[in-house]
Amino acid sequence: MTTTNAQILLASRPDGEPTLDNFRLVETPIPTIGDGQVLVRNRFLSLDPYMRGRMSDAKSYAAPQPLDQVMLGGTAGEVVESRDPGFAAGDQVVGFGGWQQYVVVTPSRGGLQKVDTTHVPLSAYLGPVGMPGVTAWYGLTRIIAPKAGETVVVSAASGAVGSVVGQLAKLRGARAVGIAGGPTKCGYVVDELGFDACVDYKAHREVRDLARALKEACPDGIDGDFENVGGTILDAIMLRANAFARVALCGMIAGYNGAPIPMAMPQLLLTNRMKLEGFIVSEHMDAWPAALQELGGLVATGKLRYTETIAEGLEAAPEAFLGLLRGRNLGKQLVRLS
Amino acid sequence: MTTTNAQILLASRPDGEPTLDNFRLVETPIPTIGDGQVLVRNRFLSLDPYMRGRMSDAKSYAAPQPLDQVMLGGTAGEVVESRDPGFAAGDQVVGFGGWQQYVVVTPSRGGLQKVDTTHVPLSAYLGPVGMPGVTAWYGLTRIIAPKAGETVVVSAASGAVGSVVGQLAKLRGARAVGIAGGPTKCGYVVDELGFDACVDYKAHREVRDLARALKEACPDGIDGDFENVGGTILDAIMLRANAFARVALCGMIAGYNGAPIPMAMPQLLLTNRMKLEGFIVSEHMDAWPAALQELGGLVATGKLRYTETIAEGLEAAPEAFLGLLRGRNLGKQLVRLS
Questions:
Q1: Which of B250, B263, B283 is the closest to A266 by Cβ?
Q2: Which residue, A131, A135, B37, B146, is most buried by CB atoms nearer than 10 A?
Q3: B63 at interface of A, judged by CB pairs closer than 8 A
């Protein structure tokens, strides 16, 4: 076992689109643990779009990622050493260990969960049976709440969240329509995930053009939108929204680099009597148990499909993260630590 | 009693802002009634911003006002002759009689209500104890649902709806802040209606400037917005919204003449985890009895203040309506028929 802990720090804040220069790899000694602490070896890092927001110091719902500190993020790994009676070496755990190989955790302060990898692989606890899955579950069941026969659209449909949204919508008897970038992703969404249709936004850049493509994919209009992108994609969806349509506003990746993303016709919210709700899944902890029970069961029984894009080695994390922001991944973007 | 029925028809659809040329006054015979019918003499016409939408034939929640037909609209009046056993000459009634002196109604088809004018004046059934009042009640209590100590903002605060919103918010222990055009309206909102503050949007045309004025009027931020105007007013409110703020989207008069009214920063809906809901009060009939009970009680006991701007004579209706769209009225805009 090596005695150093490789870490990736936030070296500088991005001006527009992040670059590799915003990150710095350092080596530090593996810390020793005190009473009540646990040393965890991270096996997988979760890369998520919300991290882009924290790299800036603009006002947001989360405190910004501090400069020169280890990049924050969800992790799955294994207990190496424990001085907490609730954990033992070999335990599989998920937590918020950041972009590093080892992390010291004080479990009594919360934030470290043992997970059962008998039927669900460890990495899935960072995807469909973790934060992305619960995000999909919450927005779909608590905000959109589709009735059988209704149509639900989800943008970034091939991603970790979007892929779950559409499958849960199908399980509830709704028509699921994805929006994704390029024929490969769209093919995956329909053929592998079982969505009813998928619109390639890269083939329909102009809002009216995209709205026409949505009309074809959603012949009965749109009753629910799980929105991950915003910008012209949301504008086009609103043009096809039915009366009483619901928008679960989960992300607006179109604007994450600071470009203005005005909503062109907010009056449609009124004329269609729409309901729009922004949400952060970590503020709805009461929903997690029910969500994880359903999601864990579906993954364990093979009824919920998911794909992972895995970058190898901590040093690959920054580039993988930039790729995620550019939509280069399919499904959940992870980093596997050696 | 005259034998003719003066009526105002929609002569043409407006291109942008409506003009007097869009209306036409005609005289027709007073119709005779058949079995089960009632002849009502209208005493008051209600003029409401929603009528602007119906003058166009753009897609909206309501069917457009037909050309060359009597302008649709709410009315309060008196039964002149009845061949329905439920009504008698002299009954005070409210209904949807349109811009005319007389109307024949078949009460069994719905749409005609007897009202008690012992403690509530007839005209108030077109204002605080009618559609505008219930609109305010629904958006405030069912969508914004303010807690004591929260801050509620309402645009078009001196109007028939806005004036009720702020007073109901105060009665629930919230801070009520109006937005209105000009010092007279703002003075009325604070001094007569008892709002805590009122911002004159005409003195703060630029969105950042208006947001600064709102910051002063709402030192603890904004928890609820009852939105009647949209455009830069909504943009400025969103800049001051607190986490979990609710927007009851009732009207967007800023865009009624066809000007684009993009929402500048929809990402605030996400970062502030806001909830926004468009609504039409006529689709929530289940709320009316509770609303009318509270509103009627408050008006009868003098606890809910309201003001009427009354134009005299049917022929004054078009000009009064254009004035309403330009914000020339204070409180409820009515037309009294001679």
A1: B263
A2: A135
A3: no
